[in-house]
Amino acid sequence: MPNTDSAAPGLAPLLELHAELGPLQSLGATPGGEIRLVPILGGSFEGALLRGRVLPGGADWQQVRGDGTLEIRARYLLETDQSELIQVQSEGLRAGSPEVLARLARGEIPGRDEYYFRTAIRLTTAAPRLLRLNDLLAIARGERRPRSVVITVFEVL
Fold first, then answer.
1. Could you tell me the fold of the domain covering 11-156?
2. CB 64 within 8 A of CB 73
3. For residue 8, what pLDDT band results from cuts at 50, 70 and 90?
């Protein structure tokens, strides 16, 4: 029998993440668009229940579509202040007008409402205190800075 609950799921703040980024590396134009890699050098995160650092070694793989939209696939590790590890897998889009995308490419910081930067996030951990993270979906809103990114993550309730 179909679910008759018409209420949409809600969102609850989970954490905010600040990641420092290395220089962009481009594989060049491929048949599917330009492929780029952006190394994740480190950073920090904080939420109501956890805080810690972004470990170096992760990366953001990007495919640039013909219209300038980025298809994003990132994977990196978080380490809580209690030495618990959390794997982050993120997939999403960053899109905007040609003018706004050009400003981002120049290192300018447009208002976060001038472009669309959203990702779906899955978290994985073996830490007993954080096992519930394995069973949730999260949605994030990103803000690109010249050498970093700010990701605000919300748990889908």
1. Porin (2.40.160)
2. no
3. confident
